[in-house]
Design goal:
With about 290 residues, the chain is an alpha+beta fold. The chain has 8 helices and 13 strands. Helix content is about 30%, strand content about 25%. Strands 11-10-9-12-13 form a 5-stranded antiparallel β-sheet. Strands 2-1-3-4 form a 4-stranded parallel β-sheet, sandwiched between helices. Strands 5-8-6-7 form a 4-stranded antiparallel β-sheet, covered by helices on one side. The two termini are about 15 Å apart. The structure holds adenosine-5'-diphosphate and magnesium ion (MG).
Amino acid sequence: MSVARVAVVTSGAGVEHDVDLPLIVDALRADGLSAEPVVWNTASVTWERFDLAVIRSAWDYVERLDEFLTWADATAGVTRLWNPASVVRWNSDKHYLGELARRGVSVVPTRFLEPGRGITPADFDGADGVVVKPAVSAGALDTARYEPGRHANAARHARMLLDRGRSVMVQPYLPRVDEGERALVFVGGAFSHAIRKDPLLTEPGVIDNNLVPHLGVAPYRPTEPEIGTAVAALATVPSPVAPLFARVDLVLGNAGEPVVLELELIEPNLFLQTDPEGLGRFVEAVAARAGAAH
Ligand SMILES: Nc1ncnc2c1ncn2[C@@H]1O[C@H](COP(=O)(O)OP(=O)(O)O)[C@@H](O)[C@H]1O
Ligand SMILES: [Mg+2]
């Protein structure tokens, strides 16, 4: 049998900063596969020549969502794409949090504000303040926290996004994020490993688009309730097959219950440097999906 060819899909920023990328490429090669990083929107790439394309760090998709989703559909038409294009589309808009809540998963309470509809000061009420962020977002871009009573500032932020045609989410600020946000990584549908990280929105009232998204990362052993919540969240993904990779980000609510902050099925950091066995599981899952005939 010929050697399976894997494209590890990235972006300009991913090539420079994605720490998972070289680990994955090297481990796939050590496993006997052909693996190369490929920037997703490189015009000259013939995706047909790969047995599998695994999206790794297409971090700029947020700014060009339509183009990215079109690319995902087209690529899935000529090679195996993971995660599947339909899952990528579903996960690219955090309106899915509303769906999770309706299905009984414990998520951070989220109010969605839509372009063309009015907003009121009450939209920004919250005993511990609120967080305002776009529904299509990554890396804490255009995200800020407002202290209680700062309705006018929060509303100005929301209006700035709404005027650009973007849906907005308003959430209560969850102070127990200070104990660490948990990121649970799943490979092939099974829990693999987890980390905790420091809170990001330490300065209220400021939109800082240069925040370093993962600070204070350390391996973390999740509790049973945390694993249960993450599994329940993943059960809502509209796909008959388990995602190749998934990350469920959790924060503790005021009563200590884990709540889902986001479900990452497109291009999450997988923190494989913190868990060599997790890297092994990931590479094994990629190899298994790259091997069988189309
Ligand atoms: N409701 C919230 N309460 C406390 N912190 C929050 C809240 N929402 C976001 N944050 C902080 O902002 C960061 C980025 O927000 P997140 O919802 O993860 O969006 P994304 O990572 O897609 O930009 C989180 O990692 C967390 O530190
Ligand atoms: Mg996040």
